[in-house]
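Dear colleagues,

As part of the handover before I leave the project, I'm documenting each prediction I ran so the next person doesn't have to rerun anything. This entry is a single chain, and its sequence is reproduced below.
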Amino acid sequence: MQGFLNISLNKIKSNWIALNAASQGKAAAVIKANAYGLGMNKIAKALVEVGCNYFYVANIDEAIELRKENTSNKISIAIFEGFFEGSELIYFNNNLIPIINNLNQLKRLNDFNVLNKKNQTIKAILNIDTGMNRLGLNSEEINFILRNKSILYNTKWEFIMSHLANSNDIANKNNYKQLKKIITFSKAMPNVKLSLANTFGIKLGSKFCLDQTRPGIGLYGIDGDGNNINLMSQNLKIPFELFAPIIQIKNVNVGEKISYGGIDTTNKNSKLATIGIGYADGWLRLLKKNSSFLIEGQECKVIGNITMDSFILDITNIKKIKLREESYVNLIDNSNLKHILRNLEIISYEFLTLIGNRIVRRYN
């Protein structure tokens, strides 16, 4: 028996429509890491249906997979990792958009485009570092470009982009410093559009939306802590639920030790259900701290360790319904993700991308 994720494509569509409206119709979608573990191709197809035509992925392998599902080239696919030696023809043949992150990549792109006919050049996005210190041209490289603008002339630039480091903190002054830096640099490339805002950049207001926004986690209606995102006075929708099977139920006497090392002991005669999901599926050991679930309004807690393939849930107090082996329990619903992640060194991005391949994705 396998656990499964119920994923509502309609709710994801609804979230993108709301994010796009808040972006004045300028939203793309970030679907890297298999759309944060929820299924890149399925989600991209759903978003295309509601008007999204620009997608960001992490690396060239993700981009090729997405392009195979969208051979008509009606969508644009941009790649965060950069433009590496030997990848030139892959980008060109698959109509992919490299994000240029340093001067060496810019020179490589320029050389390729100079050597090829104008209708065989690679279009690209120029990423400048405005304060994240992760990817993007640094200040020295930016100054080189400003002194040698001709290096920009042989490429069709889709966007100048940067990434906000503190967008989830509305009061952080660095947001405005980064906005000022990208606008100032753009004067050197006056006809090129700008892209800066992620999901929380959209929440900062219209001035941060510029010519394109790049929502990612917002597609799933939650922030990094698993809280529901409120946008334009409405909550976005959480589009997934995680179900896991009960693979055994047993009665255990008071005073019995449970699981590896006997880390817990029953304090009463108990009914315990072994749930068929574990850390091999992304249900990490550290989740035990906050893992309690409401079944028919009754709280059930994890007892013992979370192991590779299973964990044990105390269902002693469940009286209204008869739980049985081979039935399923809902581990993640629209209310408890923030509770499960509370005060742990894990964020919702990690949680979603760690959900393993043994968990079946079901779409509706």
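The chain has a mean pLDDT of 94. The chain has twelve helices and 19 strands.

All the best with the project,
I.
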